[in-house]
Design brief:
By secondary structure, the chain is mainly β. It has one domain: Maltoporin, Chain A (Beta Barrel). About 5% of the residues lie in helices and about 55% in strands. It has a 22-stranded antiparallel beta barrel. It is globular. It starts with a helix and ends with a strand.
Amino acid sequence: MKQNILASKSLLALAVGTISAQAYAQNTQQPQTSIDEEVIITASPVHGDKDKVIQGISILSGDELREQAAATLGETLQGELGISSSSFGPGVGLPVIRGQSANRVKVLQNSLDTLDASDTSPDHASGTESLLAERIEVLRGPSTLRFGNGAIGGVVNVIDNRIPESVPESVESAVEVRHNSANSGDNLVFKVDGGEGNIAWHLDGLYRSSNNIQIDGPAMLEHEEEEHEGEEEHEEEETTIGFVDNTDANTNSLTGGLSWVGEDRFVGFSVSRLENNYGIPPGAHGHEEEEGEEGEEEEEIIRIDLEQTRYDFRAGLNNPWEGIEQLSFGLAYNDYRHVELEGAEQGTVFTNDAWESRLELVHEQWGNWKGAFGLQLQMADFAAVGEEAFVAPADISNYGVFWLEDMNIDDWHIELGVRAERQQIDPINGAEVSHTTTTLSGAAQWLFADNQHLSFSLTNAERAPTVEELFSEGAHLATNQFIFGNSALDEETSLNYELGYHYHSEAVTLQAFVFYNDISDFIYELGRGTEMEELPVFDYVQQDATFQGAEAELNIALNEELTLNLFGDYVRAELNDGSDVPRITPARFGTELEYGAGEWSAKLRWTEVQDQDRPGDEEEPTEGYSRVDTSLSYQIDGNNADYTLFLRGSNLLNEDIRDATSFLREFAPQAGRSFELGVRVTF
């Protein structure tokens, strides 16, 4: 198993050396423009103007990103249009895009896979850090074929400056400290960028420490029980009141990067180390210890101890050959490991020894067409070892090629794309399974006025089943299930339609989207109605499903200082037999008032979340809630440093917020009313 990985690494090292040597040897006259602040990296390798991207895209950067950044990626993005968070306690929060998450949403670090185990189980945290990001780009919908088989529902790309692509004129530094009252959480973040001549370097780090989150009321949801004559009263289960137990966390991260930058090329390398230890709220794993002193069974405390070391290499070159404007190459290798600690004992150990490489070429104009093509390779040695491991170790490989083209004719902008990919999974205790997927995408944008356009996209996207869907067999304590995979699963095929409208003027901006996704052979878990090891049994099966919904956002500048924002989104997901897909975001709508004048800026946001009364089989409905959040910041420009003081208030109405997307909504609500105070210094 490992010999194949080592051989592949040697070949990649040779390829890297070849490309690096060419990057140093070539000499052209154009300046290096591989990444510019205006370029929307995730959506298009050709166009940098957001208005020219046909599908819906969300971008968080600058002050807006720093204002929304939180401990998890899902929490950072949950206020964006069409995006929510699938939490597993405060230590885990994965993005949900238009009702789809996990294996259907691709999370990237600088356009390469995170290569962690976050898509294997809902209690596994992502290896990315929002507080260290320069920008986060989210592409809603399936037009993400550049990034692979797992992007059928969308892409989240966390972009940072760990490999510099330009040399700063002087050393640039930033330090941020923040404290959160919800969990007595302290965060310290720093970044330093510098360089001289052709050498640029980067250093960043993060320290986070938090206690149990505070809530208003009991952690476990109290259901109304009907009492009947002659029946004993329902025995209440034990729960904490005013806080959620075992939700404390400690995180450390340190990254260093070094680049050589020429006029039209760069080559760089970075190393990043992440350590994250977080607790899983009681009730999640449903695992009990031996009888206590009074003969009662006590639930075991479960923690995740995560460690990863990631190595990244990137190179860019302008005009390497005739007809090619730009060459970019990236390679990432991640040594990932996490241990599930069951009290004082070591439980299941998950490891992922994985790498991914990506080569992309942007060609010159061919008549009216401009586009890019590329190659993407990924290999992983994945393992889950322990008495409670539910997935067999396996070698996983993916090979993909893609081609994107677009053209402008009069008032029309047209995009076409194709991707072919081969996935092979070789489990240690079974026969190899392989799948070939093909994705075709077409989109058109009609600019019928200077400030308005209509867009339409049609995509036929395929997704190969994952290792846990194919080969699970055992108790999955994170979700209180005994799961059986199915090695005979076919590829999912999603036929996706999207219609969009955009309008902008000096005072008003409006964007709206409607979408319909018809998914053949949708993979999901179906309960048998029986138990094994005191857990309900579920099988991975396939059935057709539909996801449909709408999103809209209206921004109105009331005057030079005040802006009013109105927003809403809705998604409905249903299986072919009429039952509901579980853990789907309910309808949301709200308004935000934004103020900015001189050194002051402030926001007041109200969000109304509806009941989720279509929770899916074996799932409980979720009550809606009203959420009010606010933020206030003040900037001080000094001679040698600039200071930003900020205060953020969350859930000001102190609502009992239980997300319909969370496996733990019955046991762990979101934090109650809280405030976060911080200061950011740049110099």
